[in-house]
Design a protein that fits this description.
It is a single chain. This protein is of the alpha/beta class and 560 residues long. The chain folds into two domains: 273 residues, no CATH class; 173 residues, Glucose Oxidase, domain 1. It is built from 21 helices and 14 strands. The chain starts with a helix and ends in a 14-residue tail after the last helix.
């Protein structure tokens, strides 16, 4: 092995090292000291349905790593449930957990000089956290997605967790009664697995498959199906071979890989959070990627998949008709995918897709033919203007007209915004603005699923805009603009908006504009004072001090 990491821990330059004594206690025998040590980062937790099935996969992976000739060393890493913490103060820890996960995997693997790592995770931040760690360490690594949840069912319709959030808005608007609200809540999440639409978890699993750090078809498998366990076992064998061949993340996470991931995200109608996470991963591996690259690719890649939240189907439906390999092959045939990008198996993308059909199956409309896409261009638009000099991300799928000029309704927190929506204080034509929820200001850049779902539930999705320096759940849709940078906490223009100011959202012109004179903004800026930090101790305080702008991926190790 070329990197000599294993010898650091088992010999320390001596034929008979005292380091071996500790390893013998964990089960090493004499013959095992010649084998690669593989870290197995186990995201198992009963905190969330996304991760509660992962321990079974981790055990399967552990056995397979041993059979493949490696010595697996399992360790735990944390998660929180975005869906459970949504709309609460706890949601501030969601994005923070991405960096905690990355730090923990890096610490365990580098602290024990491991030769490779298999990371298994489910909830949204597990995936980018693991890939950031793999990129930092640059040792062979593979990601195993814990799998998607199967849809819930009520009254003849498929349900996801977003159905429960939207039902609250419908109930508040008098469209359903309490009995129906309760029935939807009870049936939305039937078992183990990550949120079932093309929300953040399934978006990131798809992106990782597109970048070659997980196996084909693995990103849309259901958590509870046997094929997920079989894919985990196969991943172990592929990883051990990658360790032997020294296939490194720096060979996989290239500019071409990131472009492939962005193209797939656009084609499947993925989450706005993918922008943030891919920027962070690129920063870590040293690939030059900017927010503007997403806009460039958006203009040439259509939305091919009719998936929730704005569409009709869930990830398991996509899996049944061909999964991400089908989408990738369609893009490859149109010259919109780099076929020469390398994967963890040692094959190129083109070789992986060689036997995959490029035409969607007949008698289904989950994946549309190239000639009849859901949308002719991608759905994640990058908007700039005096309200977002560094950029912002608009999700425009499911919106009849992605243009709106209206009066600002200004809120200093998610909670006050949600109260106003549920109390019927928001009118058609309003532009809701929620600020001081950015990476530093929140801190932690909370997702706004509760307000956006309440807007949809109240029937205002096509007539009301929402702007924030925070984030949106992958389950959000409508005329929403997030990741506004610079954020309010550092004096961005979003901090200067006053109630009733005219704001323009125009996805066609890629514009986010506060219609106030420069002279007036200069005067407001002179009178603006930065708020006191909301936290002065603990992980949120540390995060607020270290975190970069969302336009750079909200990373915590930028130019330290």
């Amino acid at each position: 092995m070329s990197n000599n990491r294993r010898s650091q821990v088992v010999t320390q330059g001596h034929q008979r090292s005292p380091n071996r004594a500790m390893l013998r206690a964990t089960g090493f025998g004499d013959e095992d000291f010649t084998k690669p040590i593989i870290g197995l980062a186990n995201g198992y937790s009963t905190i969330t349905p996304c991760n509660m099935g992962i321990n079974v996969l981790a055990k399967r992976g552990e056995t397979a790593l041993t059979e493949a000739g490696a010595m697996p060393q399992m360790f735990g890493t944390i998660t929180i449930s975005d869906g459970i913490s949504m709309g609460t103060e706890g949601m501030k820890y969601s994005l923070v957990s991405r960096d905690v996960i990355a730090d923990s995997i890096e610490t365990a693997c580098n602290g024990q000089s491991m030769d490779g790592v298999m990371a298994i995770g489910g909830c949204d931040k597990n995936m980018p956290g693991a890939i950031i760690a793999i990129a930092r360490m640059n040792i062979p690594g593979i990601f195993v997605y814990g799998g998607t949840i199967k849809p819930g069912h009520y009254n003849g319709q498929d349900l996801t967790v977003v159905s429960a959030f939207e039902a609250v808005g419908q109930f508040s608007a008098g469209k359903i009664d309490e009995a129906e609200l309760t029935a939807i809540e009870r049936n939305a999440c039937p078992g183990a697995g990550s949120c079932g639409g093309m929300f953040t978890a399934n978006t990131m699993s798809s992106a990782i498959e597109a970048m070659g750090l997980s196996l084909p078809y693995s990103s849309t498998m259901a958590a509870e199906d046997e094929e997920k366990a079989e894919s985990t076992e196969k991943s172990a064998f592929v990883l051990v071979e990658a360790v032997r061949k020294q296939i490194l993340p720096s060979q996989l996470l290239t500019r071409k890989a990131f472009e492939n991931a962005i193209s797939v995200i656009m084609a499947v109608g993925g989450s706005t959070n993918a922008v943030l996470h891919l920027l962070a991963i690129a920063n870590t591996i040293g690939v030059k990627l900017t927010i503007d690259d997403f806009e460039t690719i958006r203009q040439r890649v259509p939305v091919l998949c009719d998936l929730k939240p704005s569409g009709r189907y869930v990830a398991t439906d996509l899996h049944k008709v061909g999964g991400i390999p089908l989408v990738m092959k369609m893009l490859l045939q149109q010259g919109l995918l780099h076929g020469d990008a390398l994967t963890i198996s040692g094959q190129t993308i083109a070789e992986v897709l060689a036997e995959v059909d490029d035409i969607p199956p007949a008698n289904q409309d989950v994946v549309r033919p190239w000639s009849k896409p859901v949308y002719t261009e991608g759905h994640l638009a990058v908007l700039k203007g005096n309200l977002a000099a560094e950029g912002s991300v608009a999700k425009i799928s499911g919106v009849k007209n992605p243009q709106l000029t209206g009066p600002a309704r200004v809120f200093e927190s998610e909670e006050s915004c949600l109260d106003a929506i549920l109390q019927g204080k928001i009118n058609p034509g309003d532009v809701i603005l929620v600020r001081y929820e950015g990476p530093k200001g929140g801190p932690g850049m909370r997702e706004m699923l509760a307000p956006t779902s309440a807007i949809i539930g109240a029937g205002l999705g096509d007539s009301v805009g929402l702007i924030t320096d925070g984030r949106f759940s992958g389950g959000t849709y409508g005329l929403v603009v997030g990741h506004v940078a610079p954020e309010a906490a550092v004096g961005g223009t979003i901090a200067l908006v006053e109630e009733g100011d005219s704001i323009t959202i125009d996805a066609h012109q890629k514009l986010l504009q506060l219609n106030v004179s420069e002279a007036e903004l200069t005067e407001r800026k002179a009178n603006w004072q930065a708020p006191n930090p909301r936290y002065t101790r603990g992980v949120l305080a540390k995060y607020a001090k270290l975190v970069s702008s969302s336009s750079l991926g909200a990373v915590t190790d930028l130019n330290l």
